[in-house]
Amino acid sequence: MAYALQQLINGVSLGMIYGLIAVGYTMVYGIIGMINFAHGDVFMVGAFVSLITALLLGLGSGAAGPGALLLVLLAAMAVTALYGWTVERVAYRPLRGSFRLAPLISAIGMSILLQNYVQVAQGARVKPTGTLVPGGVTLMETDGFAVQFSYVQMLIIVVTLAVLAGFTLLVTRTPMGRAMRACEQDRKMAALLGIDTDRIISLTFVIGAALAAVAGCMYLLRYGVIDFYIGFLAGVKAFTAAVLGGIGSLPGAVLGGLLIGLIETFWSAYFSAQYKDVAAFSILILTLVLMPSGLLGRQEVEKV
Amino acid sequence: MSALLSMQGVSTAYGAVQALTDVSLEVAEGEIVTLIGANGAGKSTLLMTLCGDPRARAGRISFDGADITALPTHAIMRRGIAQAPEGRRVFARMTVRENLMMGAEALGQPGDELPRVLALFPRLEERIAQRAGTLSGGEQQMLAIGRALMSKPRLLLLDEPSLGLAPLVVKQIFGAIRRLNAEAGVTVLLVEQNANLALRLAHRGYVLVNGRITMAGTGAELLAREEIRDAYLGGGAH
Fold first, then answer.
1. A vs B: CB pairs below 8 A
2. Chain A residues 174-213 with a CB less than 8 Å from chain B
């Protein structure tokens, strides 16, 4: 029981990270109908910017204050957002109106480019950092097993919920959010209403990248080790989460992220930690075969 | 009176398929002008070409004295043109109110036209909190026109507002167009298959055949032409 509770805590905090990345996949898919395969690497860039900012602030050994952490988070969001904007501008916009596969291929190229760029600029070795948020509370103790809820896990959950709440308000309550939803539903009509759809698409990439940066920052705090390749696996898992939740659905992305996090964690705990990726990707295949529109996705309706 | 909108020698193509050839037309401020023609003649293409999508391959389009031929769609619409397009294209997963507000917000307007739009189409007020996808075809058409009106356009482009609607609903919608023009002074370019209805409403009309303008005249003149009656009015049944 205690063991399961511990896995639940671990799974939810991991799932939050996947959910944040998955939102970026699902947003971009919703608005321009492409899978942004470089998104996982944008997450990786977010983790690196977090690390660099932390080092610049002199963090890295010992606990960091909340102000410093906030600064790290904001810097990561700002710089990574710029990356997201640039990726769209350079690799996808020139291909708009081209055949459907073109931006997809370009995205894979962009993914490899970002990985190699970070590898060259930052080195290929793994980058460890000290424990920036140490400690935690012991929730219960039975049969010699202590259920730990670490402060960093609390931080991940609280920050993610706050960011997602802000994001939801933005999408549902502001003119900008309405313009985004209009583009998602009918881009041509949105343009006919005077919406600059290119600007909205840029904005989508910027917001998606900022959310991925939050995930990258949380990942760094949680695991303390990053390298240029973390974006691949995290990206594919977040993509799985987006598909599981129903690609195009924002709540679905978060739900999918949580489920993937939980499945992975419980699988590791009860079966095999080595084969945890098998569990996640089996879910991807099963979803695509049995339930292609996902848990909260809409059935594709042909537009007349 | 100088033209509010003018197209001179405009041609458009979808890939290799020529859709409009050397089209010239004018719409003066305060007019209702209709464009009639058979299915596939290029009527919707003409309205969309005005809006920059697809872009004219040749010719010049000017609005209110300025050349808009090369402007992107959103920039054209921001100059005071609004369209209720073919198929209505309401945002099905937004409420009626959100749909209407989109018409104003995209241009940074506060949406103070809302009471007038709701007065014109009282049915929309009854359905204001409903999702647009749940509306009937006639209500969706009212919504599409209402949304276009929210930006207080100087030129309103209407693409087949009567399509697929019951005669009574068509009558309501055409009544609304007439009122808009007479009372609010909105200039209208109306594309219609229902030539009889359109020519009775409009001051002037153009006939589009295979992407070319073949006839032009006042509504009454065109209604009286035998070839129009044969081709578009059911063999002179009127």
1. 62
2. 175, 178-179, 181-182, 185-186, 188-197
Per-residue pLDDT at A303 exceeds 50: no
Q: Which of A98, A173, A188, A192 has the highest number of chain B CBs within 10 A, making it the mutation to test binding with B?
A: A192
Q: How far is CA A287 from CA A264, A280, A290, B223, in A?
A: 16, 11, 5, 60
3-class secondary structure, B159? strand
The chain B residue lying nearest A183, using CA atoms, is: B91
On chain B, the residues whose CB falls within 8 A of the CB of A183 are none
- Whole-complex ipTM: 0.92
- The reported pLDDT for the residue numbered A300 is 58
Residue A288 lies in a domain: no
- Residue B103: pLDDT band (50, 70, 90) is very high
The tally of domains found in chain A comes to 1
The residue type of B109 is: Q
- Which CATH fold would you assign to the domain B1-72+187-238? Rossmann fold (3.40.50)
Among the partner-chain residues A178, A181, A189, the one whose CB lies closest to the CB of B89 is A189
Question: Are the C-beta atoms of residues B222 and B215 closer than 8 Å to each other?
Answer: yes
* DSSP line for B178-192: HHHHHHH--EEEEEE
Whether residue A22 lies inside any domain: the answer is: yes
Question: Quick check: is A292 in a domain?
Answer: no
- Cβ within 8 Å, pair A196-B74: yes
What residues contact B88, with CB distance under 8 A and at least 6 apart? Answer: B137, B140, B141, B143, B144
Tell me what percent of the residues of chain B surpass a pLDDT of 90.
Answer: 83
Rg of chain A taking only CA atoms, in angstroms: 19
* Rounded Cα gap, residues A165 and A170, in angstroms: 9
Predicted confidence (pLDDT) at residue A302 exceeds the cutoff of 60: no
Say yes or no for a CB contact (<8 Å) between B51 and A192: yes
Whether residue B236 is predicted with pLDDT greater than 70 in this model: the reply is no
Domain that holds residue A104: 17-230
Tell me the pLDDT tens digit for each residue of A10-50: 999 999 999 999 999 999 999 998 999 999 999 999 999 99
CB-CB: which of A188, A193, A197 is closest to B102? Answer: A193
In a domain, A69, yes or no: yes
Tens digits of residue pLDDT in A93-142: 999 988 989 999 999 999 999 999 999 999 999 999 888 888 899 988 88
CB < 8 Å to A197, chain B = 74
Domain residue ranges in chain B: 1-72+187-238
